[in-house]
Amino acid sequence: MKNLVLPSLRSFAAIFFPELCPGCMNTLHETERLICWGCQLTLPKTDHLWDFQNEVWEKMNQFVRVERVVSLFDFNKNSRVQSIVGSIKI
Length: 90
Ligand SMILES: [Zn+2]
Description:
Layout: H1 5-16, H2 37-42, H3 55-61, H4 80-89
The chain binds zinc ion.
Zinc ion (ZN) binds at residues 21, 23-24, 26, 35-36, 38-39.
């Protein structure tokens, strides 16, 4: 049986405590979870899944011999990626 009370309470609580996207600080839509669609589409993705000898792999291999290193996004200071990672760490 579908719970009808919980979504109503969430909507009511969102009036006073809206859920914000940690990347852009805009209010999240009901269908969005954690990160807004705008940020998901514009985050700087890498192609490390297909490029095995990428720059992260080269840096890591200077210290430890690894077969494969993958990063999903480019990380820069004061970027949306940093804001999102910071909100996850809390
Ligand atoms: Zn956002």
